[in-house]
Amino acid sequence: MICLENIHKSFGNNAVLQGINVKVEAGNSLVIIGGSGTGKSVMLKCILGLIPPDQGRILVDGQDAEHAERDAFLARFGMLFQGGALFDSLPVWQNVAFRLLRGALKRSPAEAREIAVEKLRRVGLSADVANKFPGELSGGMQKRVGLARAIAAEPEIIFFDEPTTGLDPIMAGVINDLIREIVVEMGATAMTITHDMSSVRAIADKVAMLHNGVIQWSGPISDIDQSGDPYLDQFIHGRAEGPIEAIR
Amino acid sequence: MILTAPLEFIGRNTLSFLAAIGRVTLFAIETLRQLFLPPFYLREFALSLLQIGWLSLPVVGLTAFFTGGALALQIYSGGARFNAEAVVPSIVAIGMTRELGPVLGGLMVAARVASSIAAEIGTMKVTEQIDALVTLSTNPMRYLTVPRVLAATLAVPVLVAVGDAIGIMGGYFVGINRLDFNAAAYLKNTVDFLEFWDISSGMVKGAVFGFIVALMGCYYGMRSGRGAQGVGRATKSAVVASSVLILASNYVLTEVFFNA
């Protein structure tokens, strides 16, 4: 279980997170929604220790993230970055098998490559892609390679940062289905950031909406249309009028 | 208000300069600490050695060759004022090995390597590749900085030695073909007056310059701002900082080596 308690984070005078409290049960899929610049990515990066929170506590299965042994802690996570964040200088299979080629999970290159090709197949990419470089792939293929990398070491917790941004609706649907399948199949705990409401409905068990640095609303996906929360209603229906100012 | 404004400006810039020195020093200490901690990324080290050493050879070699030739012409025309034309071979050799070889080699490597390292790491930062490294349980300092700094520290002295030889050859070429020196006498004068310390001091300078160049490239790359402008600024800062630090440290090293 991931538990965020009273997380605060400011950048200069800009207080991005102002007391975030979130719980994600093991094996559940939480989708975080909210306007651009509301601190959704900052929240994920705080959990991973990429950005230290100014205040508050992050617990993963009861263990304080701040005091955990870094390598062992991070070995439990996989992350799909918004832009893929693939390493340009490495071929696709080495990107996917990055964790399996070094460190505590190190395998032989042949074995790592075999696992990489299997994970690529899992995300719908053929073995031919394995030897290509990220620059030779389309945006959708890069996302899928990023997804393959996120699941390569079969982590317990997977973060997805805007997995469908910049993709056409069909490719977005493919990625949504893949994420759902992978989470169910692996029994992983998932946290996803997205603006795409079709992704929310496809991926989420629970939804949390971030607004003005706090969780404005959270609840099961089945309650999203009857929440009665004007902020959530405005966001999910994409209305210009409402309590959320269009110009921020 | 008007009277205090210049003082505020000076104070602000002094504080920001001192803070920058502090950050660079901490970055250098952390790099040296990580140098001795496993895992060691041999593939990245070998690639850096190739990029920094082997691929810088043409630019360093050409610079040294033309500098050696120009130096021979200058010393010949200057020396003619007091009938000292015969010192051309020895002054070219000493000038190249002690000073021009390491400094010009260092500056050429700064232009080629510091910019490339800063741009590469800066782009990795803005495209979240550095964050991805962390999430894949890989320390970016150990994976990106250590191999580059180690490779530059080892490769630049070798580049300097090769540059010295090419620069002396440039002087020899001009001496024989333009200044009518006897080939055997030119070589004899070069070898007779050259001491081992002339060459090794230049190589020590090369190691220091290599360390500076890679460190500045990595430091500014890691601190790169967002977008193309951020990467561009990081690249420019890496080249400017490493060039200035090379010239400043060259003076300090020359004081230590030859003026004690």
Mean pLDDT of chain B: 95
Q: Class of chain A, according to the CATH hierarchy?
A: Alpha Beta
Secondary structure tally, helices of chain A: 8
The tally of domains of chain A stands at 1
Main sheet summary of chain A: 6 strands, mixed
Q: Quickly give the structural class of chain B.
A: mainly alpha
H and E order of chain A: EEEHEEHEHHHEHEHEEH
Give your account of this protein's structure:
The complex is a heterodimer of chains A (248) and B (260). Chain A has one domain (28-53, 69-237): P-loop containing nucleotide triphosphate hydrolases (Rossmann fold). Chain A is an alpha/beta fold. In chain A, helix 4 (109-122) crosses helix 5, helix 5 (139-151) packs parallel to helix 6 and helix 6 packs parallel to helix 7. Chain A contains eight helices and ten strands. Chain B has 260 residues and is mostly helical. Chain B has one domain (42-258). Chain B contains nine helices and no strands. Chain B has helices spanning 4-35, 42-52, 57-79, 88-126, 129-135, 140-177, 183-193, 196-222, 227-258. The longest helix of chain B has 39 residues, at 88-126. Chain B starts with a helix and ends with a helix. In chain B, 45% of the residues are buried.
Secondary structure elements and pairings:
The complex is a heterodimer of chains A (248) and B (260).
Chain A: E1 2-11, E2 14-24, E3 29-33, H1 40-48, E4 55-60, E5 63-64, H2 70-74, E6 77-80, H3 92-96, H4 109-122, H5 139-151, E7 157-161, H6 169-186, E8 189-193, H7 197-203, E9 206-211, E10 214-220, H8 230-237
Parallel strand pairs in A: 3-8, 3-9, 6-7, 7-8
Antiparallel strand pairs in A: 1-2, 1-4, 4-5, 9-10
Chain B: H1 4-35, H2 42-52, H3 57-79, H4 88-126, H5 129-135, H6 140-177, H7 183-193, H8 196-222, H9 227-258
Helix pairs in contact in B: 1-6, 2-6, 3-4, 3-6, 4-6, 4-7, 4-8, 4-9, 6-7, 6-8, 8-9
